């Protein structure tokens, strides 16, 4: 099959279309003919050779953890879906990629709601899973009035966390780069600029108490978030490895023994059907320009996800090389 791949670690320019062995759906999995795949920070770190998982990566490697497409193979033990179904989901994280190809095997998935475009659906899964897991860990739930601060909220995970938290009834204060206020307000948050002095800016809003905080960016705000919430136990970080030394939980997902947030896909799909959830997409790039997609995803400002359109690989168009 045709796939976006890299044969060596390096800058986005190492990405090129080439041939790769077709994967097949194992037990509990489905295979999809891929339409779209969102770019995640883990894809960038792996490609650059900057991930601790670098040594376990066999080259050439096909990047991409999120995908949307049409099921064409159903693995043993899978019920409730069939070839031809349109779905969105993610590969098994232990595979570290495989979505940027004609065919990809998904470990978890959900029916694609008509309300989400292919571009949105292919960019949703990691953000939804991660945000759901973090909100569960923070105890943000319906029927419990919570003011939640999300630091670094305009990117892939943050823009989804804002909406899922708002849907659970939380009042969400979300930070972004100056200029992103309209984007964050439209997602349902009270916007604030990120950076030092956050506590003062929160107080200036007239908010006397922040109950919980989610550090998405890992940009050094943990001490301030702990002060704002009044305790390290009220803060979760997704990206700051120093969290545990400060008593802050670092959420890493099911491979580190945490309950996953995959149940969030069905919730997000339901919210999308009711017009209460979308996946902000910053840009869409064809497969033969995957390098541009990685370059765009790797630099701010970010207003949602960057997506690679893989449909041309299956059509045998120019991108099929
Ligand atoms: N632990 C897990 O399970 C898990 C899962 C998924 C992702 N992650 C990690 O979580 C992080 C975020 O993922 P993502 O997909 O949302 O990344 P992303 O799309 O690249 O977004 C990063 C966000 O951080 C913002 N940011 C940059 N500098 C900041 C600062 N000084 N203060 C506050 N915010 C700042 C960015 O804004 P601008 O670029 O506009 O400045 C953007 O909104 C990444 O480090 C990723 O590796 C962890």
From TrEMBL:
Keyword NADP: yes
Protein name stated in the entry: NADP-dependent oxidoreductase
Species whose genome carries this gene: Streptomyces tremellae
Protein origin, superkingdom: Bacteria
Lineage: Bacteria, Bacillati, Actinomycetota, Actinomycetes, Kitasatosporales
Pfam family, one: ADH_N
Key words of the record: NADP
Coiled coil: none
PANTHER family reported in the protein's UniProt record: QUINONE OXIDOREDUCTASE
Domain Enoyl reductase (ER): start-end pairs: 10-308
């Amino acid at each position: 099959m045709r796939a976006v791949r890299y044969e060596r670690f390096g800058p986005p320019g190492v990405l090129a279309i080439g041939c790769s062995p077709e994967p097949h759906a194992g037990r509990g999995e489905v295979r999809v003919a891929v339409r779209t795949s969102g770019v995640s920070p883990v894809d960038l770190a792996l490609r650059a050779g900057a991930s601790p998982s670098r040594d376990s990566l066999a080259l050439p490697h096909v990047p991409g953890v999120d995908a949307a497409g049409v099921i064409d193979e159903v693995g043993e033990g899978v019920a409730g879906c069939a070839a031809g179904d349109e779905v969105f989901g993610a590969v098994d994280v232990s595979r570290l990629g495989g979505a940027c190809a004609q065919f990809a095997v998904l470990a978890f998935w959900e029916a694609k709601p008509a309300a989400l475009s292919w571009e949105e659906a292919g960019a949703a899964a990691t953000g939804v899973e991660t945000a759901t897991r973090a909100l569960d860990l923070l105890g943000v739930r319906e029927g419990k009035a919570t003011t939640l601060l999300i630091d670094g909220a305009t990117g892939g995970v943050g823009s989804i966390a804002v909406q899922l938290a708002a849907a659970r009834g939380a009042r969400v204060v979300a930070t972004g780069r100056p200029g992103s206020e309209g984007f964050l307000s439209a997602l349902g948050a009270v916007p604030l600029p990120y950076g030092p002095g956050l506590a003062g800016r929160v107080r200036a809003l007239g908010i006397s108490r922040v109950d919980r905080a989610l550090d998405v960016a890992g940009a050094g705000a943990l001490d301030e978030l702990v002060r704002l919430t009044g305790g390290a136990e009220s803060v979760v970080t997704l990206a700051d490895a120093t969290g545990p030394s400060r008593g802050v939980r670092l959420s890493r997902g099911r491979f580190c023994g945490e309950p996953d947030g995959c149940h969030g896909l069905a919730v997000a799909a339901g919210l999308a059907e009711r017009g209460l959830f979308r996946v902000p997409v910053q840009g869409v790039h064809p497969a033969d320009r995957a390098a541009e997609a990685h370059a765009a995803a790797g630099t701010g400002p970010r207003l949602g996800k960057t997506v690679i359109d893989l449909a041309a690989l299956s059509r045998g168009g120019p991108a099929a090389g």
